[in-house]
Specification:
Arc Repressor Mutant, subunit A, ADP-ribosylation fold, three-stranded antiparallel beta sheet, 9 strands
């Protein structure tokens, strides 16, 4: 398995489908690395302990964390599995955050705002460049500005994951700007 394939597989299991390999996660999303490897191998994936540790350190996104004793791993955010309910401390966001999306989603976002979909939170970026990269994953990218300061002033909670991703439950349309003229 290539490092990129290993990272994608780990993300899928830790964020969305631990049961697919018989893995149990605790409420904060932690799983024993040995159990992850054993489950992967039993399901036909050639994953090693070294590949799991390498995935933690690889890439700019920093999707995972190791426990202090190095025995467990978790995804930092992006969970859709109901057994994981990570607790994040509230944090004061910058006045403006950014959301990168594919242009084909703009009409529904304009009507409904940003929703987490199958995930537990909407993911926001502190800078436009990161938002562009996120938006490009699903097509032609467009970046929307989020009035995070205005949202927080009205009681919306924000959290910051360990890798710098900003999280909130939803973003109503009135807090979004930067629409192209065609939407």
């Amino acid at each position: 398995m290539t490092p990129e394939d290993a990272s994608r597989f780990i993300a899928y299991v830790l964020r969305h489908a631990p049961e697919s390999i018989g893995l149990a996660l605790d409420a904060e999303g932690w799983a024993e690395i040995d159990a992850l490897v054993i489950g992967a191998v039993a399901s036909g994936r050639a994953l090693t302990h070294a590949q799991v540790v390498q995935a933690v350190d690889a890439g700019a996104k920093k999707r995972y964390a190791l426990s202090a004793d190095g025995r467990c791993i978790r995804a930092l955010q992006g969970h859709s599995t109901p057994q994981v309910r990570r607790s994040f401390e509230p944090a004061e966001p910058p006045a403006v955050l950014f959301h990168g999306t594919a242009t084909r989603f703009l009409a529904s976002i304009r009507a409904e705002g940003l929703r987490p979909g199958t995930r537990q939170h909407v993911h926001l970026s502190a800078d436009e460049a990161t938002a562009v990269q996120v938006g490009q994953r699903h097509g032609k990218a467009h970046v929307l500005r989020v009035d995070a300061g205005g949202m927080q002033a009205l009681g919306h909670a924000f959290h910051r994951a360990e890798n710098g991703v900003w999280l909130t439950e939803a973003v109503p349309p009135r807090f979004l700007s930067g629409w192209p003229s065609s939407v």
